[in-house]
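Bench log. Compound arrived from synthesis this morning; before running ITC I wanted a structural hypothesis for how zinc ion sits in the protein. Inputs:
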Amino acid sequence: MISSPFGMRGDEMHLGVDIMFRRRTPSDLAERFPRSTPNGSKMHFMPDAIPALAMSDGVVRFAGNTPRGWTVILDHPAGVTSYWTHLSALLLPEVKRGAYGPTVVAGQPLGLIGYDPKDPARLKHLHLELWPGGRRSRAFDPASWLTGLPVQVDPLAAMPATPPQPRVA
Ligand SMILES: [Zn+2]
């Protein structure tokens, strides 16, 4: 679920959405991830080592480390580029800027969801942006695209049968 929406956040523009699991009540699973820890906020939670999965087929345009954590940029056939960051580890080979990397398929693990290194609270979440024509200056709200995707309410069900092995951490 979207834990922080696209748009102005204080005096900063949030160019994407933050994604976490939403707490359900009663839910003993959510209680394993207390609020005010890296694994939980008041309304949302994020266990360790949950993979971020490609939302559709694409080509890797960048996969590497940045000041915001490990980051993946994918070009999709629909003419939209997706940007995934705050990853704690990469599940793809590194792809430098300017290179055009391997293809990925929908559902393929890209990296493990971590936190923004600039966030003192270290709250784990996925940050996702969508850029039409590959231009970040034109980033739009991904919310309407995400509503068409299946919702995973149980984080353990989001884990592949075989835990993904980080290529780079
Ligand atoms: Zn964000």
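What the model suggests: The chain has one domain: 2-149. The chain has two helices and 13 strands.
ITC booked for Thursday regardless.
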